[in-house]
Amino acid sequence: MANGVWHVELGIEIDLTLEDLGHPEMPDLWEVLCRDRRPVGQRGLQCLECREERPHCPEWMFLRIRRGQREAVHFNSSVGKHPAKSESDEHKALKERIATTGDREGFRVVTEDRANDGARRTDVTVIGDVAVGWEIQVSNISEPAVRQRAALARRDGLVPSWTTSAKKLSEVLRGAPWSLIVPRPWQEIRAGHEIRVAGGVRILEMLHCSRVPGPCPVKRTGKCSNFHGIWEVYNPTLDDLVRGSAAGDWVPVIVPQSRWMNRFWTRPADRDLYAASVGGLPTEDDLMQGNKRRAVPSSISEQEMERICRYGQESDHRSPQREVFDRGQRLDASAVTIPTQRTYQPQKPVGAAPALLDWSAKSHWLPQPQPCQYCGKPASLVDDHGRPSHKVCKEKAAG
To answer: How far lies 32's CA from each of 7, 29, 64, in Å?
Structure first.
């Protein structure tokens, strides 16, 4: 609990010990805050100590009156203690790796990139044809916090990009463009060893209907002679994703499913082909339209207040359990259906696999099986382009 809180949308500190909350120019501020019935993570009330000591890992609060006193209370006390204030070795190594890669490729790199108003601090910003704001996440964070910080990055002209090596965290980061990397010791990360991306990147593949699992996705029965699109998981290296995202070779996309939105990185040609087939894709601004509210002009109060975080107090409020839909499975893209006689194949990444393959290197290993691009059965290896494959299937396809 605390007697002060930061309001993200208004950009002000609120002193709950004062009748006017420290803002006499906003006489109805308390009533306005009490009428806000949005989910707690979307109200933008942030712990003052968390904001100052660890702004890239905000903790959200709600307001209440208890025994006649106004209080700001952390939303979910079951998360545990705040993360340590110092960065972990893994966090430092990944931040250094992304910055080094961007600099080596000739892009402008800014570490600890802070917005002029102090509302945003990005771990690494890589600026090429596209300005990409990289966030390395190794500690707990809420999905509303991810969306809030991604919105701040877009406000400042950045394409947000979140990456983690923790599978559970990757499920939370999917409210923004994200990537899940294969875990590596921080010493290997710093030494420049290859880091493979295990999730968050897909390419559009055209498969003959006979190779698509189940019935024809268009007719819903039997098979046809056409080629259908399918979003396949792709496994580039982290260095490739850093370079390609800043160069515009990888772009974020939002693909609506029946009851959810799937965000991932893909190639511009794949995005454009799919968008043309479905009549256009939504943008983050489209999704935010229903959540915008007008901010009341205000000024920051100089009133001193208690800044000690009392996180961990018992609370009856708990975050709802989130259902995760994207587990790396193939995603239907059969809106892109092309007759056999004019089959379109998106341009393949540069390089061709040899007839006899040596996939003994660790770079060909997957952390968990994924569908083979040829037979659809679980495969534990990737080809030279990062696509899941059985070695025998790849050799057979290569002739």
So the answer is: 12, 5, 13
**Cβ within 8 Å of residue 19, ≥6 positions away:** none
Q: Rounded to an integer, what distance in angstroms lies between the CA atom of residue 294 and that of residue 96? A: 39
- 233-257 burial code (b ≥16 CB/10 A, e <16): bbbbbbbbbbbbbbbebbbbbbbee
The residue with tokens 């931040």 is: 95
Q: In the predicted model, is pLDDT for residue 144 greater than 70? A: yes
Is the pLDDT reported for residue 238 higher than 80?
A: yes
Cβ partners under 8 Å of residue 290, min gap 6: none
User: CA–CA separation, 200 vs 390, rounded Å?
Assistant: 21
- Measure the CA–CA gap between 29 and 385, rounded to whole angstroms: 56
Q: What is the pLDDT of residues 302-361, one digit of tens each?
A: 445 555 555 555 555 444 433 334 566 777 788 887 776 554 455 555 544 445 787 877
Look up the pTM and report it: 0.59
Half-sphere exposure of 234 (CA within 13 A, CB side): 21
Instruction: Decide which of 51 and 151 is more confident.
Output: 151
For residue 21, give the H/E element and its range: none
d(CA 47, CA 29): 18
The position carrying tokens 């995603």 is 331
What digits encode the pLDDT tens for the residues 22-68? 888 888 898 989 888 888 878 888 887 776 655 555 568 889 888 77
Q: What residues pair up with 264 in beta bridges, in sequence order?
A: 253
- For residue 193, the tally of other CB atoms under 10 A from its CB is 13
Distance, in Å, from the CA atom of 325 to the CA atom of 114, rounded to the nearest integer, reads 33
**In this structure, what is the dihedral angle of CA atoms 283, 285, 288, 293, given to the nearest 10 degrees?**
-170
How is residue 295 written in tokens?
Answer: 């901010």
Q: Which helix (H) or strand (E) holds 53?
A: helix 48-53
Please tell me the distance from the alpha carbon of residue 389 to that of residue 233, in angstroms, as a whole number: 11
Q: Is the confidence at residue 83, as pLDDT, over 50?
A: no
Within 163-267, residue ranges assigned H as helices are 167-172, 186-191, 238-247
